[in-house]
UniProtKB/TrEMBL annotation:
<dbReference type="Pfam" id="PF03479">
    <property type="entry name" value="PCC"/>
</dbReference>
<protein>
    <recommendedName>
        <fullName>PPC domain-containing protein</fullName>
    </recommendedName>
</protein>
<feature type="domain" description="PPC">
    <location>
        <begin position="6"/>
        <end position="152"/>
    </location>
</feature>
<dbReference type="InterPro" id="IPR005175">
    <property type="entry name" value="PPC_dom"/>
</dbReference>
Amino acid sequence: MRAHELTTGRTFGVTFDHGEDFFDALSAFCRDHEVRQGYIPSFIGAFAEAEIVGTCEKLEDPDAPVWAMTHVTNVEAFGAGTIAHDVETGSILPHIHVSAGLKAQSADGRTSHLLSAKVQFLSELLIIEVVSPNMTRPRNHALYDVPLLTFGAPE
């Protein structure tokens, strides 16, 4: 387990507009407001289309992460995540999970890691900045190269 007391900074209410790319809008928000890291305790919204982690294939190694994606359209979404700082590029490394209901299929649901999304009508977020410690996401080579949230100086 990794744990660290967090010193939080500002809290923002943010809305992304119809047609915006979710991750581009999130990156622009962070750049414009100089947010390097933080938490998204929850957000609601709709996506015209999204890509989430998933597959219908038989998994060769059920313990390994799934790197494939599935495409969904016209979904209502509820999500949460973290924003870590990318030391190499100075940009952000978001890690967002969503539960998404497919509107045209009786709100049949999908839940997974969000890879991309185009906002449909709106997305409403609460973003809490973390000012310390540094939150980074180095890849753990011993664990399938999965990027894991780390507190403090990167290893």
